[in-house]
Amino acid sequence: MKFKGVYYICLFFLIGSFETSIGVDDTSKPDPLDGVATARWLVSQNNWGVLSTISIELGGAPFGNVVSFSDGLPDKGCGIPYFYLTTLDPTARNTLKDERASLTLSESPIGSCGKADPENPTCAKLTLTGKLTLVTENTTEAEFAASALFSKHAEMKGWPQDHKFQFYKLDIEDIFLVNWFGGRKPMTLAQYLQPSNQQCELKERC
User: Fold this and answer.
1) Fewer CB near the terminus (10 Å): N or C of the chain?
2) Which residues, if any, are the signal sequence (predicted)?
3) Tens digits of per-residue pLDDT, 77-105?
4) Residues linked to residue 105 through DSSP beta bridges, in sequence order
């Protein structure tokens, strides 16, 4: 019986320690009062999200697809998401008719929400809305897109050439951020693209 009691005490402390340490390395997380820094942080730290387009196969219904993306080299993002897509997939195919799209990200995959539910306002969420456009081949921007994506998604370099993957970017028109109680955090596109505390070394390529 004594052994069983010690066992439960040890288990209790083990569980408590585990729950306390679940992905809560939030030392780089911006102050919730700084919406611009939070939005840029979410885009920089995430490497996948849900990209929604207007479906040509579902009569114009919204179609959300999990996609990988990058806004630049690790911790040196420009804030503009780049993608490596093929028209064999509905997302890229939809843009041939309607370029409107939105990318939705959550703080939850980063691991800094603790035990908060992803829908809890303290667990930041971001939706960037605009147009999903093809990056012109053999340009400085195409080089930047390749560097940004392959530095975070090395597997992409080996994807089948006959699938004709191409680089795309989201030309942002609207920014919807919730990172605390009180609703949407107001922010202009100019503020988002040029935050005072995070200048992009390659911004001319974005």
Assistant:
1) N
2) 1-23
3) 999 999 999 999 999 999 999 999 999 99
4) 126
Distance CA 206, CA 197 (A): 18
Long-range CB contacts (within 8 A, 24+) of 140-148: 140/205, 141/169, 141/205, 141/206, 142/167, 143/205, 144/72, 144/82, 144/202, 144/205, 144/206, 145/82, 145/84, 145/169, 147/73, 148/70, 148/71, 148/72, 148/73, 148/77, 148/82
Task: Give me the domains of the chain, ranges plus CATH numbers.
Answer: 35-193 (2.30.110.10)
Tokens read off for 188: 């202009």
Q: What is the band of 200 on the pLDDT scale with cuts at 50, 70, 90?
A: low
* Confidence (pTM): 0.83
Count Cα neighbours of 77 within 13 Å in the Cβ-side half-sphere.
24
Q: Quick check: 40 and 192 in contact, CB under 8 A? A: yes
CA atoms of 176 and 189, how far apart (whole Å) = 11
CA angle 99/154/29 to nearest 5° reads 75
Helix (H) / strand (E) containing 100: strand 100-106
Q: Which DSSP symbol is given to 50?
A: E
